[in-house]
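Whether sequence alone determines local backbone shape is best considered at the level of individual chains. Part of our work consisted of pairing the sequence of a single chain with a tokenised description of its backbone. This step matters because it turns folding into a mapping between discrete strings. For completeness, the protein is quoted in full, as a sequence line and a line of structure tokens:

_____
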Amino acid sequence: MSEHNWGLLKRMTMKISFLLLGLLGCSFLCASVISFSKIKAAAAKKYTIEQFLNTKRYCAGAFSFDEEKILFSSDESGIFNVYSISVDGGNQTQLTPSTNHSFILLSGFPNDERFLYASDGLGNELDHIFLQNLDGSVRDLTPWAHAKSQFSGWSKDQSSFFFLSNSRDPKFMDLYEMDVETFQPKMLYQNQGGLNFSAISADKRYVALTKTISANSSEFYLYDLSANVLENIAPHEGDIQYKPVDFSVDSRYLYYLTDQDSEFIYLKRLNIGSGATEVVESHPWDIFFCSFSHTGKYRVTGINEDGKTVIHIHDQETNKKVLLPKLPEGEITQVSISKTEKSMLFYVNGDRSPSDLYYYNFETSSFHKLTTSLSSEINSADLVDAEIVRYPSYDGTLIPALYYKPKEIQKDKKLPALIWVHGGPGGQSRIGYSYLIQYLVNHGYPVLSVNNRGSSGYGKSFFKAADHKHGEADLDDCIWAKRFLITTGTIDEDKIGIMGGSYGGYITLAALAFRPGEMAIGVDIFGVSNWVRTLQSIPSWWETHREALYEKIGNPETETAYLESISPLFHADNIKKPLLVIQGANDPRVLKVESDQIIEAVNKNGIPNQYLIFDDEGHGFLKKQNQMKAATVILEFLDEHLK
């Protein structure tokens, strides 16, 4: 999965999406699936970054009102715009003309060819909801300055849609309904208690809400709009997560995800009238999203199975799993079923192929591919699949990881390598295409993508294991990844670097500052250098998660000394290895000053360093020209200091 694709994985986890965003009963020997005694394979063709970025990215997806077309967003033009394509395939039609702002499709209109899309201010994350009319004119439906708005679905009669906005109070998202005749918003729920909206019933009587208690616990509320009554549905002690997902079509039941009495997240439903609950679906992995088709005929659930999305579709009437034909290799994501429930669209994403859009017909059990994302200049056979491995950390805990090996790796020619750290805290490195990882591997750098303790997807105990130990326990998991690489017999132990974006950028800086002899170089992409400042300057719209974030990492008002002890900026004199820092100037999560100051501090050490700033990006780089520049600089930096 690309860490920078905006909007691709909004429902990927019920864990709190934080700042930047063992449970395995087998030994290390049986957990590892890699054989290192293979004969040298034929060398893969080397590709330029221009060839890699001739690949197109696709995201979002919705049927047109007549179900004859599919709408989606693509960066084929160099920046994300909205496109359409016939359900039968053929040429794509670009519907929006942006050259500088990303336009991400939200939804088509139910009765004509108008559509909604989201766009922000060059990465500042203050999204507005825009309407494109039939004549191509555009209207900002949420024009409030300095406010963030989020589309939250259509009413059941499709005469209006719901959205959230912090226009009234920057700290809290209120719930609104937008009538599509007048386009006058009406506030349905004023969020004065710091709650998080999840769903509204078809009859518009009930609103499902949660309150974040900590990173590991939440409360679950049902608000009766007609009676103006707010009820705590599941009062509890201890750490339990609740995530309402949707109401039944008849508004009698509320479906929700929880990890109550379980390591993993499963699906339950609440009978609103009687208060009775029952388990609907569970697996030995997290269910991380659930959705329903228009009349409730189909239930779609996504299971996070060892870093790979597995989709289940159930017929609600028979409660039986829908038998689908053999679909393409890779993971299926972003499933959307048409209003008539005759067809669905979905994406397929694999390590060697970016997300492509597919169309499936329930009546004929047939499917076909609508897009081709990978550049025609690249042979996917030259790319590599991730191998799922587990290695023991300092205390014996098995750490899951994804290992990407160059095609020509061999034991008699040791290579430099990279340890890749995902964002978070609480994120997860997952199976799926990353142009940057494939580019680096294609140019001779093995990459081990670590899911250190504190990562989501491996049970709540593993997720909690790094609380108030960030830059310590999780850092050492990444340091011990170096030992794993050395044991392969194919890696030069003196040429192992560390790299990551967001929270992974923090771990990169922490590795250089707190374990200065371990890594040969560091590549920090918008990483935190000073936790005190970052926690004091979190975006206003994260207010409902502030205390949970403090509990997970530390409170900047009461634990200043502790936070300084885990902040690389205050220990930058220890950094003795080359460092590359890349930053978006408009980043609202990790402010540019974080990168400015770490570079200033490293300069005093006389250490080789490089600093790349993008003035038109935020927390993640969406423009192809910027992605190309960043990847080029990264590879040149690695070639200079590791090779």
The CA atoms of residues 37 and 425 lie 36 Å apart. The chain has eleven helices and 36 strands.
